[in-house]
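protien #1 (seq + structre)
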Amino acid sequence: MVLKEFYPPIDPYDSGLLEVGDGNRIHWEVCGNPAGKPAVFLHGGPGGGLLPGFRRFFDPAAYRIVLFDQRNCGASRPNAGDPRVSLEHNTTPHLISDMERLREHLSIDRWLVFGGSWGSTLALAYAQAHPDRVTELVLRGIYLVRPSDHAWAFTPTGAAKLFPAEWQAFRDAIPTAERDDLVAAYGRRIGDPDPAVHLPAARAWMAWEFSANTLLPAEPPALDDDAVLAAARILHHYIGNGGFLPEGGLLAGIDRIRHVPAVIVNGRYDIKTPPDQAWELHRSWPEAEFHMVEDAGHASVEPGTRHLLIDATDRFRP
């Protein structure tokens, strides 16, 4: 089998800042074919922001590709890299509302929704809230934000056993007396207004976040201080609040989207969003096409994962 490659780099033909309420403006861009099939890309994190490579999962001749920076990250304003910016109005329902405002702003009736990692969480939550606006779902690295997923990421009995050196660095950035609840201890530091306190904590938090992205070790992205603090603040905000998901979580709402054509892709050796989450989604939603990539971790750029994601968008072309 010949693995599918990314489509060539492409620039947006339109972009802007959309007022979404509460003093927030989200940055959006559109590329590809203005008359093509609408598709929206949801980035991870939360708080990860857009990268140019995200445009390349879609055939630009067939799709009208919409991308946006979620609230308070990337080029959206205000940016959480400023510790004075409140995250009070940054929740999953707010992000879902932002997507609807953007869809209406761009005069789109229905669109394909593509999301990986946290983007898969938001894609499922959006689709369950607005099933009539979704033509298809393409989901990668499923993150259900259950208590067990929290425990896997932030206690010594989970991912720490596979990344012991990285876990030690994450743990040792916190004084011994506060290590009984690392998430809370990091929250106090990341939320401190003093850069001498919040920046080291944010960098240690994000170093642990990036430690398990790929099956084989890879250099983490280089982020400036504002991007690091924004990502750490938003990620901690969502983790500390259970992803702002409805009671019962995402699996409880599958009946609302059971009719939507969907492709689920997860790496067998995904340490960040272990495949039990994708498997549980598949068990709840057997109508969705399911793929376990045997030689992949978490990242969307790993060859087998990339192939399946692009194959899905190719098959969903008009």
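ok now protien #2
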Amino acid sequence: MDLSTKFTEIYQKQALNAFFAPGRINLIGEHIDYNGGLVLPCAIEFGTTLYTAPNNDNVIRLKSLNFDEVIEIPLQNGYTKQGDTWYNFPLGVADYFIKNGHTLQGLDMLYYGNIPIASGLSSSASIEVVTAYAFNELFNAGYSKLDLVKFSKSVENNFIGVNSGIMDQFAVTFGEKDKAMAISCDTLDYNLVSAQLGDYVLAVVNTNKPRKLVESKYNERVEECAAALKAFRQRFDIEDLCDIDAATFAENGHLIADETVYKRAQHVILENERVKQSIQALSQNKLAEFGQLMYASHQSLRDLYEVSGIELDAVVDYSKTNPDVAGARMTGAGFGGCAIALVKKAGFDNFSKEITAYYTQKIGYAPTVYQQNIGNGVGSIQLLSVPKQNTDSL
């Protein structure tokens, strides 16, 4: 898709700047980010591309090629959420900049995303971060990348209304090619972990069941974890649920009286241990061991955290029957969206064909299967003097 030509068709001018932010997958460590533990995400090649040019009309114009409308918003002293539309994400970023003392100028903006919408691959964080990065560059706001991560999370929590952690924005911003990111969500310290997959590739299987976080039980899970933390604080001086290790949980789990809250805590604490084991396995190129940890993670998310479903389970169930698959699990918050599988390159086409047939027979409609590589985080795109930028490979 030639976004430069599209930009000119829509706005009758050439784009002067362009930016890209990826989506992300979480290799392992689900529902850990708001519990102060370790997560292991990576950026992917899917993402959001943004082309811009200034205008003299004191408005921000927002257009996405993924949706129909063009939105024209006058520059003012702040904004509020407008229903459930996609442009709340850039609107929230604009609101943050303005309320923190930055002067915005008129801007025409064209977005294009190839992240499957509502799939759990962080399309929202991708839009937030690419917008924040663009504003930071265009208006000389002086924010660091870590600042962009923090306030993009604030937009998600306070403007959009989803009580998510910081993992998505962090991975979208700081990702590096062929490397996973071991992020400590309590301190935001992170280490890059070699993720050389060798004879394997990542298969992303979109269940095509949309995942709508605000409408899901995501916030309920956050509250249940807060209840578990409160129970442990009867005996332990801790900041986060992941400050409790597996051995301590085994000895003190009785502090949690509610059975459901107990199961949620059990998942979180054992999942945090699996992340530590996965970091070691990946860094030592023990892909079979990592694959088994993926399967264990999915089982825990299904049985203890209860955020899977028949669609995601079908992907993992089939994967266990295919000898070319080292491991599989749901990725993202769950309630629909995507699963990932570690599949031998030579067997990927067969995997794609067979899982499509299995899933369609079981669920009643087909999934969409993608092969993805681990990519880089947010950045600028160099435009030619006469723009003609093909973004299909982005």
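The chain has two domains: 3-192+375-381, 197-372.
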